[in-house]
Write a structure and sequence with these properties.
Length: 119
């Protein structure tokens, strides 16, 4: 069982920066994708950025050039550096680990951390 603990959310002025962290405990299956999703009130949860255990990172068009996802495999921790924040980035941000197994995928979620960008 994988458990995820997020940190780093908060209130920031437009144009500011925040760094989110997500520490994973437990054993993660070899081929996996670690990512960040966000959900604003009344909207669906959308992918922000993802980093696979093998392959290239992936970003939502709305955050390309402003957000950077990275990970420290030794610490089983994934980060999301958010720069040039905009009010429309305001949402609850959720860490996700997807184990890509031969039979099916397994998804694990963090509890979420609120990011609020004031205009």
């Amino acid at each position: 069982q994988v458990q995820l603990v997020e940190s780093g959310g908060g209130l920031v002025q437009a144009g500011g920066s925040l760094r989110l962290s997500c520490a994973a405990s437990g054993s993660i299956f070899g081929f996996n994708v670690m990512g960040w999703y966000r959900q604003a009130p009344g909207k669906q949860r959308d992918l922000v950025a993802a980093i696979p255990s093998r392959g290239s990172t992936n970003y939502a068009d709305s955050v390309k050039g402003r957000f950077t996802i990275s990970k420290d495999s030794a610490k089983n921790t994934v980060y999301l550096q958010m720069n040039s924040l905009k009010p429309e980035d305001t949402a609850a941000y959720y860490c996700n680990v997807r184990e890509v197994r031969p039979d099916r995928n397994y998804d694990y979620w963090g509890q979420g951390t609120q990011v609020t960008v004031a205009s």
